Amino acid sequence: MFKSDLFAGQRVLVTGGGTGLGFAMADQLAALGAELHLCGRRLPVLDEAAARLRAAHGGMVATHAVDIRDAAAVDAMVESIWQAHGPLDGLVNNAAGNFISRTEDLSPNGFHAISDIVFRGTFYTTQAVGKRWIRDGLPGAVLSIVVTWVWTGSPFVVPSAMSKAGVDAMTKSLAVEWGRHGIRCNAIAPGVIPTEGAGARLRPTDARQEEMSGQNPTGRLGRPQDIGNLAAFLLARENSWINGQTIALDGGDWLANGAYFKQYLDWGDAEWQAARERILARNAADRAARTVGAPDADAGQAPPAPQA
Ligand code: COA
């Protein structure tokens, strides 16, 4: 589908690039010759992902243990990439957090756990990269991952729906403001592309994969390659006139079925309690594996492990 050297000599930062959709996009970009920079909160997970990419495609893959909720850490990472490697050509805003919950059950902390990553963190990263492109007179491409619920809204994931809608608005706004600098901003709104992290938090007690496939107009769920392909297409310099677009990548699912999670409208207290317990256990396991945290966000925990 693409020239094998489409991204040769180009440098791309993928936030949350160690797992899931971020890894899928990094994999496609590395296959097409890009130098990759992966950031996330679990250095061992990033390093393992980088080793897999190097083994599969060769090329340079660097890892950065950074929590995108920490604006100063984001800026320091982007500066270090510029200094040690050179300017970025592309940024993929993929890092996110989410879990299902009845909205009336959310604490302020629960809201912030999601919005601080998706809404604020995406801005910090985009601004840190964009201001350097403008300062240096360089073109660039920003690709942000939202969800089809920027159009439909979605019950039981309100902090995510609100935050992703903000990222969608950022994409359109910056497309106009930064277009004159040669900086393009686009977004992908994926439907269900099963990944382990999302499954554990959005369908913790009920996978329903067969039913979801059956409802999709194409008869299947998304595959990692689907998002890898669209990400490469949108980031490619050759597409210098695609700007300010949010493109659904869902086999037509939202047109056919609208918002997700309507099945949870039938849940009672017992189902929500079971889901919450599984989600909290999964969050705790992930938190234990983190090697960095946002300032104050992880107060009371052990200090970060030294980085390799
Ligand atoms: N229902 C209601 N509240 C919940 C909840 C649930 N299922 N799960 C967590 N919360 C609340 C907690 O109670 C806590 O609030 P409190 O301090 O007032 O009690 C707050 O959310 C933070 O919970 P915690 O378990 O400490 O989570 P965390 O901050 O370690 O991580 C995420 C939460 C979302 C940020 C975490 O899951 C994450 O980083 N995920 C990244 C990957 C991901 O989500 N992938 C899927 C994307 S689709």
From TrEMBL:
Top-level lineage group: Bacteria
SUPFAM superfamilies, A to Z: NAD(P)-binding Rossmann-fold domains
Keyword Ion transport annotated: no
UniProt xrefs under InterPro entries: DECR2-like (IPR045017), NAD(P)-bd_dom_sf (IPR036291), SDR_fam (IPR002347)
Keywords: NADP, Oxidoreductase
Ranges where the record places region Disordered: 286-308
CDD domains for this protein: TER_DECR_SDR_a
Alphabetical list of Pfam families matching this protein: adh_short_C2
Name of this chain's protein: Short-chain dehydrogenase
Source organism of this protein record: Cupriavidus malaysiensis
